[in-house]
Write a structure and sequence with these properties.
heterodimer; A: mainly alpha; Rna Polymerase Sigma Factor, Chain: A; Arc Repressor Mutant, subunit A; elongated; B: 271 residues; mainly alpha; 13 helices; 0% strand
């Protein structure tokens, strides 16, 4: 609660023209916004440009932030997400999505995904140690549809709760959960297919 | 019911509870029913396994490191200032211009684009060219006196110029009007009119001039009489009886004299 009040005070200082307060906000949130943009766009350069655009938009509209409606974090995430969606609609980022209807390999092979992952003799956590694996997961994330991608990014990477995600995406909580489930499932299938092709 | 197993939970319910189950938020009988359904339903078990694996993959992603100059660029584009560690190097008192730039930068961020600059350049070029054709030169601006005294002086000078122009135009029109009158007086039709007017009051003494005729009228009248007399050989004899005859024939009608005048002249000539 103290954190919320501190952030609100920071925002008030910034709205009243305190450049130092704005600098603090930038320092505090730029990493988070950059990561959302990076995971959504898939490109570091695009993420850098988009992050700057998000902050410019925030700087212009900071006075419209209503402390009673949502937390500052939710507001920042909403601004970021809306800007990403706008860019996506403009066609800057194409949707590269594999169909959710693709038959899971587990059914084809008669093995569950967990069993297949066990066959590789390594847990997901251990695979994450390698940079290559990180890149594979990042690429798979890029191939999700935007709706699923934004839902899993906000939940699994930004650790927002379902209520906040529902506010950011302007959809009911049930839809948020459904999208998160589908996003996770599809990502696992994509990775499973990738590993299968690799060997 | 379809999808219902011995646990009493449907596949739809499992799907709805999946997110919370993976978060570890299910407890008690709900968790037990969820687990029991999973064991008995291979489709739901596969779905749960895949969702769990996907979640682990995602949560295993490490945070991406933003570029070093990102904060610097953001601050430069919003408030036009550098981060505090760079600002400390700068001496105090130099920041007002930068602060002003910082305030203006976000306002003009939308127009500070190559496309806008191109359009502005083309518009400026067109306007400059039009002004050049119209005879306006920017170099003349520095000769303008824009002080209050200078503006007042320019105002009165302009007013005086307008007044002078007005007076000159009035004089020109007056002269034109006089010239037009003279020209009208010089034409033959008008000469006749002028000739009649002095004859009416004293028809019996045509040689006597009107009391106050203008010089030009007198001259014209004399010339007519003289010409008439020269042609006919005797102006007094030719001119005298005719008006009298005409007035007698008219029988005191007011316009008869004028109507009969050409006839009278014709008669005189035949005489």
């Amino acid at each position: 609660m103290d954190d919320i009040q501190a952030v609100n005070a920071l925002v008030r200082r910034c709205v009243s023209g305190d450049a130092g307060a704005w600098q603090e906000i930038v320092q505090q949130y730029h990493r988070r916004i950059y990561n959302i943009c990076y995971r959504f766009s898939g490109s570091p350069d695009d993420a850098s440009d988009l992050t700057q655009e998000v902050f410019i938009k925030m700087y212009r509209t900071l006075s419209t932030y209503d402390t009673s409606r949502a937390s500052f974090m939710t507001w920042v995430t909403t601004v970021t997400r809306n800007l990403l969606v706008d860019h996506f609609r403009k066609g800057k980022y194409d949707r590269i999505t594999d169909s959710l209807d693709a038959a899971p390999a587990s059914q084809e092979d008669g093995l569950t995904l967990a069993e297949q992952l066990e066959d590789k003799a390594a847990s997901p956590e251990s695979r994450m140690r390698s940079k290559e694996t990180q890149q594979l997961v990042h690429e798979a994330l890029r191939r999700l549809s935007p709706e699923l991608r934004e839902a899993v990014i906000l939940r699994d990477l930004q650790d927002l709760d379902y209520k906040d995600i529902a506010k950011v995406l302007s959809v009911p909580e049930g839809t948020v959960k459904s999208r998160i489930n589908r996003g996770r499932t599809e990502l696992a299938r994509l990775l499973q297919r990738t590993y299968k092709q690799a060997g | 019911m379809p999808g219902e197993t011995q646990s009493g939970m449907h596949c739809v319910e499992v799907e709805a509870l999946l997110a919370e189950a993976l978060d570890g938020a299910l407890h008690g009988p709900t968790l037990a029913a969820f687990e029991a359904h999973q064991q008995s339903c291979p489709t739901c078990r596969a779905m749960v396994e895949e969702a769990r694996a996907g979640m682990h993959w995602l949560q295993g992603l490490s945070e991406a490191e933003p570029p070093r100059n990102l904060v610097h660029n953001i601050l430069a584009q919003t408030i036009g200032a550098l981060p505090s560690e760079h600002q400390a190097v700068k001496p105090r008192g130099e920041g007002w211009l930068e602060r002003l730039k910082g305030r203006l930068a976000p306002i003009f961020a939308g127009v500070a684009t190559p496309r806008f600059a191109m359009s502005f350049g083309m518009a400026f070029f067109s306007i400059t060219m039009l002004l050049g054709i119209a005879g306006f030169h920017f170099a003349d601006i520095r000769h303008w006196d824009l002080s209050s005294k200078g503006i007042t002086k320019t105002y009165y000078a302009t007013q005086a110029r307008v007044m002078r122009y007005y007076d000159n135009m009035r004089l020109v029109y007056e002269i034109e009007s006089r010239v037009r009158d003279l020209r009208r007086a010089a034409t033959p039709d008008n000469t006749q009119d002028m000739q009649q007017q002095p004859q009416q009051p004293q028809p019996e003494a045509p040689a006597a001039a009107p009391k106050n005729p203008s010089k030009s009228e007198n001259r014209q009248q004399n010339r007519d009489h003289h010409t008439y007399g020269r042609d006919e050989g005797g102006p007094e004899l030719a001119a005298f009886p005719l008006p009298r005859l005409a007035s007698e024939k008219a029988g005191h009608e007011p316009g008869a004299q004028l109507h009969n005048l050409p006839q009278a002249r014709q008669t005189r000539r035949t005489v």
